[in-house]
Every structure is written in C-alpha cells, then in structure tokens.
Amino acid sequence: MLKTKFIAFEYHCTLLGLTRKNKVKTDKLNENVEGVPVHQATTDLSADDPIYKAIRLKRQDMINYVKKNTLDWHGSIKLVSLEVTYFDKFKQFLTSWEQEFNDLVERFLPDEKTYKEMIARAKENDPVGFDGSMYPCFARAKAKFHFSWNLTPLSTMSDVRLDAMDNHVAYIKEKAKADHDRNLANIEKQTQDRIEEAVRKIIYSVSSKCVKDKNGNDKTVQNVFQESSMLKHIELVEMLNSFNIGNNQRISDLIADFDKAMNPIKRGKKDDFESLRQNEDERLKVKADMENILAKFNI
Predict the structure, then answer these.
(1) Could you tell me how far CA 141 lies from the centroid of its own chain?
(2) What is the pLDDT along the chain (299 residues), one digit of tens a residue?
(3) Cα 176 to Cα 86, 185, 188, distances in angstroms
(4) Paired sense of beta strands 19-25 and 38-44, if any
(5) How many helices (H) and strands (E) does the chain have?
(6) Are 199 and 294 in contact (CB under 8 A)?
(7) Separation of alpha carbons 272 and 228, rounded Å
C-alpha cells in the first residue's frame, strides 16, 4: 500500500555564503590586550541587500512548508502523500516556489558587473580584513544559489529491483525490510507526537486559570488563544487524513478520534472562533474530548 499511496521526496537548497570572517593580526588593537591581537574582519557582500534577505526568507518558506506538510521517512527524505487534493497543492507550491526563488536570484546577481561591485563595497567597508581571494568567480558564486528536488517511488523488501541482484539477495532484502519497518514505525511515532502536541495545546487554549484581581481576590479567567494557532490544528487534521498510513489500527483510530474532537473547532472557523471563545459549554466539550484522547491512547 505504501508504494501506491506515498512517494519519497527530497530537496536541496543552498545559498552563497556572503559573510566571511577573517582573523587578521594587527598592532592597532594591541593596547590593554593580552596575547596576540586579532582583528575580526567581516566582509559582507550582501550589505543588508533586501533582495538577498528575500532569498533567505524564501528558503525558510520552503523549510517551513516541508516541515508542516510532510513526514520524515529517512534522513533528509520526506514522505509525501499521493492523495489527489494534497498532491496537487504540493506540486503547485513547488512549481511557484522554484520560479520565485530563481527570479530572486536573477535579480540579486544578474551579471558579473553587479557581483564585482558587491566585492568592491565589501573592500571599502573593511579594508583591513578584506581578502579578495575569499570570494569565488561570478559563475561559481551564482551556482551556489541552487535548488533541486526529486520524487522517488518507495521500495520495500518485495521490490522487483531487488530480485535482479543475484549476489547477496537475502542480505539485501533483509536490510530493505528492516529499513522499511523502522521508517514506518518512525512515521507512526511522528503522527502520534504531532497529535499529542496539538491536543495538549488545545486543552490549554480552552481551559481557564485562577488569577488575582487588583484587590487580591481570586478570579477565574479563560486562557487566550490565537486564531492562527487553531487554523494550524485544523491544517494538521487535513494533512494527517491524507497521510493515513492505515497499517496500524491504533494510529488510524487516533487520527479518527482527533478529527472528531476537532469538529467544534472546524465549525468555529466560519465565524473566527468567536463561538468557541464565548460558549463555555463548547469549550468544556472540546477539552473533555481532547483529554479523553490522551487517556484512551495513553499518551
């Protein structure tokens, strides 16, 4: 089932490291300093360039998206669901993100002249510590801005490719099965961990606490929650439903119970969660359902 419902995803995104620190011995900093005086020279080619900052933020967007919408499979390889709606959104994000990333890089380093001007500014900003040999040529510098990704079908111990290997077939298949079982167990643990984290946050959000008023008397107030946090929990339900591994009944039941307990919060999305804030009975119902999940599944 894994081979037909999921696919392995891996990506690499690198940037040109524009800040260089170079230790330069100098007598100018020798006063009242014991040992060998060192000037920590920083030659920053970006010079707080807004486009370079946008490139770094764009990379962070990719990191955040992958973290939220995939599950770890092995090392840097992520597990992506082939459920139609999910996978269409995934493809659209990758396509638009890659185009925007490349456009930003082209704006930042359009030609060699621009690159040399950056190096010249770095020299002006720190003539003592500047070392021109620290910077690659334009072609290599631009190549440092790199993004690539690939999708690979999952292989298991029954993969026909393993049958083609005459030597050490038994060992290879045993290793493939062990890796597969370990990765699947890791996926199931991630699912439980994400749900547990969300459940505990929701319990806190809909709970009340006792505080002192200005006269020193005890009073009960509701905890405050942000709409963005509730939206993240709703997105988690949608993502886990598309990732439902199905091999482990306990995990399937955990996802189903969490989805059901989230129903009042999903309804609240229509009116900005005001009903959840104002309706004490609804808050208590959500809290009880979430606490039942922790107790039922012993997490």
Answers:
(1) 26
(2) 555 588 889 999 999 876 555 444 444 444 444 444 444 444 556 657 889 889 999 999 999 999 999 989 888 999 888 888 888 899 999 999 999 999 999 999 999 999 998 888 878 877 777 777 778 889 888 989 999 888 888 765 555 555 555 555 676 677 667 777 887 888 888 888 888 999 999 999 888 888 888 888 888 888 888 888 888 888 888 888 777 665 678 888 888 898 888 887 776 555 557 778 888 888 888 899 999 999 998 88
(3) 28, 14, 18
(4) antiparallel
(5) 12, 8
(6) yes
(7) 10
> Both tokens of residue 84?
């139609």
Please enumerate, as own/partner, the contacts of 203-207 that have beta carbons within 8 Å and a separation of 24 or more. Answer: 203/287, 203/290, 203/291, 205/229, 205/230, 206/276, 206/283, 206/284, 206/286, 206/287, 206/290, 207/287
